[in-house]
């Protein structure tokens, strides 16, 4: 195996079966924490984030020949992880809504607005869980996690304008859902 | 929804679902689980990707081509 980060990436992409497996293990250990953290931000469930980290690295393992070193490993891995998380959200819509409610109960905001009661927070979390997963991911990363929209766009593989549109649609649908429940934000 | 409403919704969302600590790593090293996944997948029989439906569709097309040879150029055109 060649030395250095570039050597690992070359072995990962084009190496013999032995050097490829060794490079994959190095990349797994280097990036598992970042990939896990990224997925956790999207799915907000630590057990699911662990499963999806494995799933993401499995997809990375399978797609290694398509890796473009010019675009960097981290961004590529993040994009694959985002799609794995999106697939999970699509398959688990009802359950993820429940886990969102759980999160809302466990994690009170550090600077709680006294005008927003626990009941409103809980209903908002549940309504957010009912949004289409594509809109939910964009709103989670842009609004809740306050990540730069350029970063969110790169992870989702869409333009910044499309991220803005998805966030707007998510907020509008959320508002309508809450209004139907008699909550006027 | 105007800009004021949008800001209000964003605030409500942040209050309801606080950000998670994205720097937090997994509670355990996931490499052993990754190795198990790789072992399971490599032991699994290779899946051809063909379903019963695909087979039936192909059989139907072959049948049509045998019974109506004039349809072959039409199929080729749409390939």
Order of helices and strands of chain B: HHHH
**Straight-line N-to-C gap of chain A:** 58 Å
What is the architecture of the largest domain in chain A at the second tier of CATH? Orthogonal Bundle
Report mean pLDDT of chain B, rounded to a whole number. Answer: 83
Through-space gap between termini of chain B: 47 Å
Number of discrete helical segments of chain A: 9
Q: Could you give the count of β-strands of chain B? A: 0
User: How many strands, which pairing sense, and closed or not: the largest β-sheet of chain B?
Assistant: none
The whole-angstrom Rg of chain B is: 28 Å
The helix content of chain B is 55-70%
Shape of chain A: elongated
- The general outline of chain B is flat
Strand content of chain A: under 5%
Which parts of chain B are unreliable, with pLDDT below 50 for 5 consecutive residues or more? none
Helix content, binned percent of chain A: over 70%
Number of helices of chain B: 4
Q: What structural category do the secondary elements of chain A indicate?
A: mainly alpha
Give a quick account of the main beta sheet of chain A: strands, pairing sense, barrel closure.
none
Instruction: List SSEs of chain A in N-to-C order.
Output: HHHHHHHHH
Can you walk me through this structure?
The complex is a heterodimer of chains A (185) and B (79). Chain A is an all-alpha fold and 185 residues long. Chain A has helices at 4-14, 17-43, 46-62, 73-91, 93-106, 118-129, 133-144, 149-156, 160-180. Chain A has 2 domains: 4-90, Rna Polymerase Sigma Factor, Chain: A; 93-180, Arc Repressor Mutant, subunit A (Orthogonal Bundle), CATH 1.10.10. Chain A is built from 9 helices and no strands. The mean pLDDT of chain B is 83. Chain B starts with a helix and ends with a helix. Chain B has helices at 3-16, 31-43, 52-67, 72-78. Classes of the chains: A mainly alpha (185), B mainly alpha (79). Chains A and B meet through α2, α3, α5, α6 and α7 of A and α1 and α2 of B.
